[in-house]
Design brief:
Number of domains of chain A: 1
Radius of gyration of chain C: 24 Å
Number of helices of chain C: 6
Strand order of the largest sheet of chain A: 1-2
Distance between the termini of chain A: 60 Å
Structural class of chain A: mainly alpha
Shape of chain C: flat
Strand content of chain C: under 5%
Helix content of chain C: 55-70%
Helix content of chain A: over 70%
Chains: A mainly alpha (501), B alpha/beta (324), C mainly alpha (170)
Number of helices of chain A: 23
Oligomer: heterotrimer
Order of helices and strands of chain C: HHHHHH
Chain lengths: 501, 324, 170
C-alpha cells in the first residue's frame, strides 16, 4: 500500500502533468498522420526526454504511446488509411461505416472501446504482472510461429465472399514479405540489386499505398459519374444509441481478452492483436455477414484489442526486461539510461514505479479519450473539403509522412507503386486486407518456423503444447465453418450465398 | 462554400498551433563566420533507426559538437539494408566536412556480405566507443564454464544452439569465431535483433546467446542469465568478475564499436578541426555517462589509429565470414 | 470548384450512396483472364525462386523453400479463380472508370514524379505549393482559394508538422 501512495504521490508535480499533456497532444497528432508510428515518435522524443527526470520522461513517452492508439483510428475510419499499423483492422469496418454516413458513431465508439481496452489491460499490469510475465517467456520461436499461423486464418474471414481472390492476395502478400535478406542464411532474395530492398519492402509505405492512396485514386477515376460513391458528407449521430452500445459489449470483451494475451507475447503488438480479434469477434457474432461491410462490432473488437496490448506489453517489458512490442524496445533503452533496468529486480528495487507507470497510463488514456471526443468535430471538417482538396491533402500528407519514416525517397516510390497496385486490385476484385496481412505476418511466420526447426528439428511444432494447441485451433477455425454449414444442410438460403461457394 | 472556408481556416490554425508548439523545443541556431570551417550547419548521418544505441550515440555527440563548433549539428537517420543504405549515401556526399556520420562495426563487415560497402570510401575521424561481446547461458543451464559448453558441442556437433542478433551480424561472427577457436561446430540461430536473441536464451529456447555486454550484463546481475565469458583482452568494467574467453583458453576477442567518419577526401585542416571537436565531445561527462550506463566502454581513438583499426577489422572479418 | 460542390449536392439528392445496380456481374472472359494472369505470375515466382542460392548449411529449409511454397500456392489459387469465374462470374463491387478520371490520375502521377525531381534542386517550401496547385487545377479547382489558399495552407501544415515539429530534413 505504501508503494501505491509513493508511486502515485510521486506524480503530484505540475511538470509531470505538463509532460503528460505535451505527450498526449503529440501522440494524437503523430497517430493521426499516416506514416509516423508511435515507435518512431517515441524514438524521436527519446533524444529530448533523456535530459528530463525519469518520471517526467516516462510521462512524455508513455502518453505518446497511449494516445497514438487513439489518433491513428481517425484516418483509418475517415479516409481508409491506418494512421499506424495498429489500426489496420480498424479500416475493415470503420471506413464502410463512414461511407454509410455513420462516421460520428464510428469515431465515438472507437474511442470509447479503445479506452476500455487500455484501462482493462492496465489492471493486468497492476495485479498480474509477475505471473503473466512467466507466460511470455514460454513463447519461443515455434510458439510465435503458431500464433502467426492462427492470425493468418483470418485471411479467409476478411476476404468476404471472394475467398480464392482473397487468398491469392494473401499469398502475394507473403511473397512480398519474403523480399529482402533471408532471415536465417542472409542470402538476398528478390532484391534485384536495389540496396533499399535488402531490409525488405517498407511495409508502412505499402499499407498507406494499398489502403489510403488506392482509395483516393479510385475516387478520382470514378468521380463525377452517375453511379459514383458520394464522399462522406454526413457524419450522422455522435453517440451510439442504447442498442448500439449493447452490441459493443461482446466484441469489446473479446478484443480486450485477445489484446491482453497478444500484448504479453514479446514482439507481437497491436496490429496482430487487432487482426486476430476482428476474426474471432466475427466468429462469435450473431451477424458475421455484416463484418467488413460496416459493422460496429467489427470496429469494436480490433480497436479494443490493439489498445489492450499496451498493458501486456508494458508488463512483459517491466517484469522480464524483454520488449513487449517495438515501442517498448525503444523505451527500454531510455529506462536503462535513467538507471531503471527493467527486469525482475525492478519490482524489488522500485516497487512504486509500477504504480507510477500505470497511473500515468490511466491518466494518458483518459486524456486521449477526452481529446478524441472533443477534437473530432474539428477533425472531420477536413472531410467537408471538396474531392480535389481532400485528394491533395491525403496525397501530400501520405507522401511526406512516408518519406519521414526513413528519410527515404525510395519509400515514397514504393507507396505510389502500391497505390496503383491497390487500385488495380480493387478493379479486378482482389481485397487489399489479406495482402497487407501476408506482408506483415509472412516474415514472422517464415523466420520463426525456421528458427524453431533449427532448434528442435522437424517435429518442433508438435513438441510444444502451446504451439500444437494454436495450430489445432487454426485448423479448426478453417474447417469448422464449412463443417457446420454441411451439417446444417443447404436448406437455409444465406444472405451471403456468394461467400459459401 | 463557407464550410470549405472553415475547413481551410482550421487547417491553417492547426499549422500555426504546431509552429507555436515547436517554438518551445526549437534550438536557436548560431551562425559562424562564412570563411572558416564550419561555415554552416553540419548534418550528422546515422545509418540506423531513431532510438537505437547508434542513434543515441550520434545524438549525444551532436549536442556536444554544437557547443564546440558553434553551428547546428542535425542528426539525419538513413536506416535500411543493414545500414548499407545510409553508408552508401554518405560515401557519395561532398567531402566538405559538413556531412559526417557515425558508422557501426557493420562498415567493416557488409563488404564481405554482398553489399557495396567499402571502408576505403571514408575518412575516419575517431573511434568513440566499444561494446565487448559476451556469451551467456540461461540461469538454470548445466553449463558452468565455457569449457563445459565446448565439450558438449564436441560430443554432439551441431547440437548446441547459440542465438544471435541476425544473419550477418557481428554477434553471429562472434559465435563463428568461438567455434573456430575451440575447433567445434555450434548451431547458430539468427534472430531479428539483439533483444529477441537474448530473450530466447532467458526463456531457455536456445542453449546460449552471443550478444553485447550491454544486453547481457543486466540479465546476469539479476539472475536471468549467466555470462560465461567476455570476448575482450582485459576483463570488462561492466562485469569485472567474469573471466575473458582468453583467460579460459579460447582466444576470442570480438566486439561491436562505433566510429565517426566523413566521405573520403577531407581537407587536412577540416579533419583536424573535427577530430579535436569530437575528442572534446567523446570525453564530455554527458557522453561518458550515457555510454557507461548502457554497459559499454567510452573511449577516444584519433583519426590515424582509427583508420588502421578499421582496416585491420575489415581484413579479419573477410577471413572469418568467408567460411560462413 | 463551385461546380464540384454543386454537382455533389445535386448528386446527393438524386441517389442513395452505395446503391449498386442489382445483378451487375463481371464477365466470364475477364475472370478467366484474371485467373490466367495469376497463374502466370505464380509460375514466374517459381522460376525466380529456383535461381535463389540453394541449401548451404540450413538443410532442407533453405532460402528457396518458402518462396517456392508461395509460388505454388499462387499457381493453384489462380486456377481456382479462373475456374470459379468461368462457372459463375462474381458480383462487381466497383463502378466504371471514367476516361477523363483515368487521364486525371495519370496527370497527377506524372506531376508527382516531376515534383520528386524538382525537389532535388529546389526547397520543399517552393516546390510543394506548385504541386498542390497543379493537382488542384487538374481536378477542376479554379479561383484563388483553390490555386493559392489551399496550396499555401497545405504546405504550411506539412512543414509545421514534419519540418518543425518532427525535425524531418525536408
Amino acid at each position: 500500500m505504501n508503494d501505491v501512495i509513493a508511486g502515485v504521490g510521486a506524480l503530484l508535480d505540475p511538470t509531470i502533468l505538463l509532460c503528460l499533456i505535451v505527450g498526449t497532444l503529440l501522440g494524437t497528432l503523430v497517430g493521426a498522420v499516416p506514416g509516423i508510428t508511435a515507435t518512431m515518435a517515441v524514438a524521436l522524443a527519446t533524444g529530448f526526454t533523456l535530459t528530463l527526470e525519469p518520471l517526467q520522461g516516462l510521462a512524455v513517452l508513455l502518453s505518446i504511446y497511449v494516445s497514438a492508439q487513439f489518433g491513428d483510428r481517425v484516418p483509418a475510419i475517415l479516409v481508409n488509411t491506418p494512421g499506424t499499423p495498429a489500426s489496420i483492422a480498424t479500416t475493415f469496418d470503420g471506413y464502410p461505416l463512414a461511407k454509410a454516413g455513420r462516421a460520428g458513431v464510428a469515431l465515438t465508439s472507437s474511442a470509447l472501446v479503445s479506452a476500455v481496452g487500455s484501462l482493462a489491460s492496465i489492471l493486468i499490469l497492476v495485479f498480474l504482472a509477475q505471473p503473466i510475465a512467466r507466460l511470455a517467456l514460454s513463447f519461443g520461436p515455434i510458439e510465435l510461429f503458431a500464433l502467426v499461423v492462427f492470425g493468418m486464418t483470418m485471411m479467409v474471414g476478411v476476404s468476404n465472399g471472394r475467398i480464392a481472390k482473397g487468398l491469392t492476395a494473401g499469398a502475394v502478400g507473403l511473397l512480398l514479405g519474403a523480399v529482402g535478406r533471408d532471415p536465417i542464411s542472409g542470402d538476398h532474395r528478390f532484391t534485384f540489386g536495389i540496396p533499399e530492398l535488402t531490409s525488405g519492402l517498407p511495409f508502412i509505405a505499402v499499407i498507406i499505398g494499398v489502403f489510403g492512396l488506392a482509395e483516393i485514386f479510385n475516387q478520382i477515376v470514378e468521380a463525377r459519374r452517375g453511379g459514383s460513391e458520394a464522399p462522406i458528407e454526413q457524419l450522422g449521430r455522435w453517440w451510439p444509441d442504447r442498442a448500439e452500445r449493447r452490441s459493443l459489449v461482446k466484441p469489446t470483451a473479446i478484443g480486450t481478452g485477445i489484446g491482453a494475451v497478444v500484448g504479453v507475447v514479446p514482439a507481437a503488438g497491436g496490429d496482430i492483436a487487432g487482426i486476430i480479434a476482428w476474426d474471432q469477434a466475427r466468429r462469435a457474432s450473431k451477424h458475421p455477414e455484416r463484418f467488413g461491410k460496416g459493422s460496429l462490432e467489427g470496429l469494436a473488437a480490433p480497436d479494443s484489442a490493439s489498445t489492450a496490448t499496451m498493458g501486456g506489453s508494458v508488463t512483459t517489458t517491466l517484469a522480464l526486461g524483454v520488449p513487449g512490442d517495438s515501442v517498448m524496445a525503444v523505451m527500454i533503452g531510455s529506462m536503462i539510461v535513467w538507471g531503471l533496468q527493467p527486469g525482475p529486480a525492478l519490482f524489488v528495487q522500485h516497487p512504486d514505479l509500477v504504480f507510477s507507470i500505470s497511473t500515468i497510463m490511466v491518466v494518458a488514456t483518459l486524456a486521449a479519450l477526452g481529446l478524441a471526443l472533443v477534437r473530432m468535430q474539428g477533425v472531420v471538417k477536413l472531410l467537408k473539403l471538396p474531392l480535389n482538396a481532400l485528394a491533395v491533402v491525403i496525397i501530400t500528407f501520405c507522401m511526406v509522412g512516408t518519406y519521414a519514416v526513413q528519410n527515404s525517397v525510395f519509400d515514397v516510390i514504393v507507396m505510389l507503386v502500391f497505390g496503383i497496385v491497390g487500385l488495380g486490385m480493387r478493379r479486378w476484385g482482389f481485397p487489399a486486407g489479406p495482402l497487407v496481412l501476408g506482408l506483415i505476418l509472412g516474415p514472422l511466420a517464415e523466420s520463426n518456423l525456421r528458427r524453431g526447426l533449427l532448434i528442435d528439428g522437424p517435429l518442433a511444432p508438435l513438441q510444444s503444447p502451446i504451439a500444437a494447441t494454436l495450430i489445432a485451433l487454426s485448423v479448426l477455425a478453417l474447417v469448422a465453418p464449412a463443417a457446420l454449414r454441411y451439417l446444417k444442410g443447404r436448406s437455409k438460403p444465406r444472405v451471403d450465398a456468394e461467400a459459401t461457394r | 462554400m463557407s464550410r470549405f472556408r472553415t475547413a481551410t481556416l482550421g487547417l491553417t490554425a492547426a499549422a500555426a498551433a504546431a509552429v507555436l508548439l515547436t517554438g518551445c523545443v526549437d534550438r536557436a541556431g548560431a551562425q559562424a563566420p562564412a570563411d572558416a570551417f564550419p561555415s554552416g550547419d553540419i548534418t550528422f548521418f546515422t545509418p540506423t533507426q531513431a532510438g537505437g544505441a547508434t542513434d543515441l550515440t550520434a545524438r549525444t555527440i551532436a549536442t556536444e559538437l554544437e557547443s564546440e563548433l558553434g553551428v547546428s549539428v542535425i542528426v539525419d537517420n538513413r536506416p535500411g539494408g543493414a545500414g548499407s543504405v545510409g553508408m552508401e549515401h554518405v560515401a557519395g556526399l561532398e567531402p566538405d566536412g559538413h556531412s559526417i556520420a557515425v558508422l557501426p562495426v557493420e562498415v567493416a563487415m557488409l563488404g564481405h556480405l554482398d553489399y557495396d560497402t567499402d571502408p576505403a570510401d571514408y575518412d575516419f575521424l575517431a573511434q568513440v566507443n566499444s561494446q565487448p561481446g559476451t556469451i551467456a547461458v540461461p540461469a538454470d543451464s548445466p553449463f558452468e564454464t565455457l569449457a563445459d559448453l565446448v565439450a558438449a558441442a564436441e560430443a554432439a556437433p551441431g547440437s548446441i544452439t547459440i542465438s544471435n542478433a541476425g544473419a550477418g551480424s557481428i554477434w553471429e561472427a562472434g559465435a563463428l569465431e568461438l567455434g573456430d577457436a575451440a575447433g567445434v561446430e555450434f548451431q547458430g540461430v539468427p534472430f531479428d535483433g539483439g533483444a529477441p536473441a537474448v530473450t530466447a536464451a532467458v526463456g531457455g529456447q536456445v542453449d546460449a546467446v552471443v550478444a553485447g555486454i550491454g544486453e547481457t550484463a543486466p540479465a546476469h546481475e539479476d539472475g536471468r542469465l549467466r555470462v560465461l565469458a567476455v570476448f575482450t583482452e582485459e576483463p570488462a568494467p561492466a562485469l569485472p568478475d567474469v573471466q575473458t574467453a582468453t583467460e579460459q583458453g579460447f582466444d576470442v576477442v570480438i566486439g561491436s564499436w562505433a566510429v565517426i567518419a566523413a566521405p573520403a577526401g577531407l581537407d587536412e585542416e577540416v579533419r583536424s578541426t573535427l577530430e579535436s571537436a569530437i575528442q572534446v565531445a567523446a570525453e564530455s561527462e554527458a557522453y561518458v555517462d550515457f555510454i557507461e550506463s548502457s554497459g559499454n566502454i567510452p573511449l577516444f581513438r584519433g583519426a590515424e589509429e582509427t583508420s588502421a583499426f578499421v582496416t585491420d577489422e575489415h581484413e579479419r572479418f573477410g577471413a572469418l565470414l568467408a567460411d560462413r | 470548384m463551385t461546380a464540384v460542390t454543386e454537382e455533389r449536392a445535386m448528386r446527393a439528392e438524386a441517389e442513395a450512396p452505395q446503391a449498386l445496380e442489382e445483378g451487375a456481374r463481371s464477365s466470364r472472359l475477364r475472370e478467366v483472364l484474371t485467373g490466367a494472369g495469376v497463374v502466370a505470375a505464380g509460375a514466374a515466382v517459381l522460376l525466380v525462386a529456383q535461381q535463389l542460392p540453394g541449401a548451404s548449411a540450413a538443410g532442407e529449409f533453405d532460402s528457396r523453400w518458402w518462396p517456392t511454397l508461395i509460388g505454388g500456392a499462387i499457381v493453384l489459387l489462380g486456377l481456382i479463380v479462373a475456374l470459379a469465374g468461368a462457372r459463375r462470374p462474381p458480383m462487381r463491387d466497383c463502378h466504371d472508370v471514367r476516361a477523363a478520371g483515368a487521364w486525371q490520375l495519370a496527370a497527377i502521377l506524372v506531376m508527382i514524379v516531376a515534383y520528386g525531381i524538382a525537389w532535388q534542386f529546389a526547397h520543399f517550401l517552393i516546390v510543394t505549393p506548385v504541386l498542390v496547385a497543379a493537382i488542384m487545377a487538374v481536378l477542376g479547382g479554379r479561383g484563388w482559394r483553390s490555386l493559392v489558399l489551399v496550396p499555401v495552407a497545405v504546405t504550411a501544415a506539412l512543414y509545421a508538422v514534419f519540418g518543425l515539429l518532427l525535425r524531418v530534413p525536408l
